[in-house]
Amino acid sequence: MTRIDALLAAGPTFSFEVFPPKTDDGRQQLDAALDELSVISPSFVSVTYGAGGSTRDLTRDLVIDIQSGTGIPTMAHLTCVAHTRSDLLALVGQYRDAGIENLLALGGDPPADGGDIDGELTHASDLVDLVAGVGGFCVAVAAQPEMHPRSPDRASDRKYLAAKLAAADFAITQFFFEVEPYLVMMDELAAAGVHKPVIPGIMPVANLGAVDRMAAMSGAAFPDHVRQRFEPVADDPDAVRALGIELATELSADLLAAGAPGLHVYALNRSATTLAIHANLGLGA
Ligand SMILES: Cc1cc2nc3c(=O)[nH]c(=O)nc-3n(C[C@H](O)[C@H](O)[C@H](O)COP(=O)(O)OP(=O)(O)OC[C@H]3O[C@@H](n4cnc5c(N)ncnc54)[C@H](O)[C@@H]3O)c2cc1C
Q: Which atom belonging to ligand 1 lies closest to the Cα atom of 51?
């Protein structure tokens, strides 16, 4: 059992995100990926929480299973939307009782169909406070180098990011494709007096259509000059994946050289891409 803030204090971390599978086949694929990824002794793994709390029990059970089965410190994502305060306190208590020490406190998104699933807590910072009230957890928050899509302007985005990060232990970012937005955000946080670690989230491009959809939802730009590098191979899925790994490796190396405190790869329940980036960076040496 290990708090991630203690790992970060000891040097750069290498971690990845998975999501709770909804089928037996999906679970088998995830278990195989975790076996293969265990070989590189990842610093930690994080498990997403379905939009609107749709994977509430699946996420909880998977977090507890991974940590007890693999010994890899496992962080549970948790969102405000669709939960009462007592729902959240119950879940946080179950994590504490199971020896989970790391939580990622998120606002969550309103449903795409405009349905009403408000919770009692509104912002991630409210959840940071709730978890702090329970005590004993290392608490992370989400950071958006290119601003959250619901933020009305940059000043307000940075103000609320700085405030929630000041109350938390570290942050993990939304994915991005260039070093500069990350470094600008770090400067803005430093100017606001916040010096907590912010781990870049790394999304290796595997499929151009999927990246376009995710970029549109998250507000992360997929820059033209990056897209142009994919154009010559756009009809060859293997070549797109290989180039995605190459670009993710370049970005990761530049970020580490610029002082990033670690890397968190969006592994999508598979091992090959994450293992390739780890090997390319020479982190296993
Ligand atoms: C690393 C990472 C992991 C994620 N994992 C998941 C997941 O597992 N499940 C899931 O459903 N979603 C996940 N998300 C998506 C996340 O839930 C959405 O981006 C959501 O829209 C906002 O979450 P947040 O924690 O940034 O919210 P918040 O910090 O609450 O911010 C949301 C918006 O509210 C504004 N705001 C914040 N505080 C205040 C305040 N006090 N007053 C006024 N405005 C304020 C912010 O500026 C921002 O515009 C993840 C995102 C990241 C980056």
A: 11
Q: Which domains does the chain have, with CATH numbers?
A: 4-280 (3.20.20.220)
Distance, CA 106 to ligand 1 centroid (Å)? 5
Catalytic annotation present for 120: no
Report, in this order, helix, strand and coil percent for the chain, each rounded to 5: 50, 15, 35
Q: What is the pLDDT of residues 146-201, one digit of tens each?
A: 999 999 999 999 999 999 999 999 999 999 999 999 999 999 999 999 999 999 99
**Global confidence as pTM:** 0.97
State if residue 158 touches ligand 1 by the CB under 6 angstroms criterion.
no
107 lines ligand 1 (CB under 6 A): yes
56 pLDDT band, cuts 50/70/90, is confident
Angle between helices 124-134 and 154-167 (to 10 degrees): 10
pLDDT of 188: 98
